[in-house]
Amino acid sequence: MTDEYFQQQAYREACRAFEEEEVPVGAVVVIRDTIVARGYNQVEKLNDATAHAEIIALTAAFQYTGSKYLPEATIYITVEPCLMCAGALYWSKIGRIVYGAHDEKNGYRKHLSIQADNKDQPWPFHPKTVLSAGLLGETCAQLMKDFFKERRKSRW
Predict the structure, then answer these.
(1) What tens digit of pLDDT does each residue of 4-41 get?
(2) d(CA 85, CA 125)
(3) Are 145 and 80 in contact (CB under 8 A)?
(4) Residue 108, Cβ density class (10 Å: 0-12 exposed, 13-18 middle, ≥19 buried)
């Protein structure tokens, strides 16, 4: 199994959110090449501002493992985590984070003024967490663009 395969699985979750008229973000948690949890945004469905894909996937992974920490896990997310999700990822002590599209408006980097090439700026994740950004980034970004384009059309 490859990072691309697992990111495609997260993308499938994002497509599910899109179909349910939720902001299309998806996530999967992987331990030893096995998907142990899936999540997609369910903010509207659950009427819960915290029902982000990452939170749902993390909660399912905690239940699966019986632990509140996930140091051996990787989470694949279609869009850069927001500050709330970055905090949840920090507390999970997740081993690795892989995300697709950057989120200039709501991503954690905006709120921490982080630039990818500046290691002296704040790090919102656990010190041992490894971050990879941009995997299938264009595909994930296009899904978000399509979603908001469709939403703008329906308002008129």
Answers:
(1) 999 999 999 999 999 999 999 999 999 999 999 999 99
(2) 10
(3) no
(4) buried
